[in-house]
Amino acid sequence: MQTTAALTKLTGKPVTKPMSLNRQRLILTFHNPMAVAGMIVILIWIILAFIGPFLRTYSFMEFAGGPWTSPSAKHWLGTDGNGRDIFVRLTMGARLALVVPTTAIIIAVLFGSTAGLATGYFGGIVDDVVMRVMDIMMAFPMLMLYMLIIYAIGPSVLNVIIAIAIGSTPGIARLVRSLTIDLKTREFVAAAQLRGESGWYIMMREILPNISGPLLVDACVRMSYALFATGALGFLGLGVPPPFPDWGQMINDGRAVVMMTPWAPLWPMFALISVVIALNMIADGMRQAGWVD
Prior knowledge:
There is one protein chain. The protein is built from 11 helices and no strands. The protein has helices at about 1-10, 20-30, 35-50, 85-120, 125-140, 140-155, 155-185, 185-195, 200-235, 245-255, 265-290. The longest helix has about 35 residues, at about 85-120. Helix content is about 70%, strand content about 0%. The relative contact order is 0.15. The protein is mostly helical.
């Protein structure tokens, strides 16, 4: 009802045509200035990730000039300590920064949602065992858990995705479990049970669609955490191995010469911060649009 009222206020006329709740939320999201601003920032980085490296004639591994040169017409953002063009490496690194958190959170949502639905709906021994495992995982500081996993399986793009997915799963499972426990006592679930529907049918067709809003908002926020974790692992030397550009590693490289060339760590720092803020702006806009009741 609140979403319908907000849509009526936005359009200036009552909603008369049948419209799903999620469609109403989507319309409100795309009319929310904060969410739209965040989407524009993400879209810019997506475009730069795909076409940015082709705007220059250098590859991200090519020694294109002297070490730590200032921004110029030849090198728009300057060069790093190995004479490689920072603009090319920054835009190539955007591919990693966009793909790794997105993939990791999608995997975490799939596993976390399944675990949360099962434990919240069935309860009993399944709930006790799975949630105790999740509690143990959540007892570790998140970055430390990522580091332990990377130390165990080695640094690579795939392993960073695995580490972040494993670390993000318990929080998602906890959220879905609490929402499921609340919804399984509602009338529409009782009606499905009276019809003789199976437990998995009720979870997937009755409960999951009704928790999709909070789950999407939570996933958006967790994606910003995952991006920050990707940069932190790269900064600590546990991210993607060289020579592929990683924003965290680029910040660490520039940190050593920050007094001499302050712009060197500034560009990847700006890139990382802009995407993290944009993701949080989208999440806040979705909250205001009624995705979280």
